[in-house]
Amino acid sequence: MQSQTLKPILITAIPAFTDNYFWAITSSQENVANQTTLKPVALVDPGDAKPCIKYLEENNLQLCAILITHHHADHTGGVAELKSYCKNKNWSLTVYAPENEKITNVDVRVMDKQIIEIAALATSFEIIDLAGHTLDHIGYYTGDVVFCGDTLFSGGCGRIFEGSPKQMLSALTRLTDLPDRTHVYCAHEYTLANLRFALAVEPNNAELVHYYNQVVERRAKNISTIPTSILLEKKINPFLRCQQQEIIDSAVDYSGKKSINTLATFTVIRQWKNEF
Asked: Which of 21, 81, 199, 253 could serve as a FRET partner for 238 with CA atoms 20 to 30 Å apart?
């Protein structure tokens, strides 16, 4: 497991299933509220309780909060067991999630632009509406970090299951409006497959070619490619570059249309990726 220190929090990946990452957030500060012998931790999208509990016990951590981005089972499947685990230990746990009755065992429902305080970690998160992949999808943003679930991946974006291409493009725009330095913590290790598609769409992008070669080396060593950054994604991610002429031309060639705008370009390459 790899960690990245970003004051005042430390973020660690808990790999799960085939390619999921659950994110563990601890404080990098010594003096945190309600400090005990166990260091507090929050989990993002814990779809399976077992690796999470193993991580908690191996690292002497006390679960204080769960942040859910959307209702899909690989993001919510571990919540009930984790709540039971915390109850048995007399730990206070708060589960945050978007408004959706499909997500159960929730303590606080959150919405766009709301600020939530995680006192035990001495940090707060702003909620970002990211409807597109699902209609309930949200992100959690703090400082130089965003947890974006299945909206933005390195080199790609999530499938559109419930929303529209317009909603998905709007969600991605909200993320790219964040500062370039923002670290992007998505929920899956899809980077290599995404970049193979990106190269089909924009083969002459030198930065994309360079990044692809780096990712091939990293994945050969089983090294994670996440987090990525907003700056990097603006340079290499075709779904964020739909105004670039090469991508427009590729979308025109694939669709057979003579002329398309930015939304149509996005719609075409998202469908193309589905079939790639």
From this structure: 21
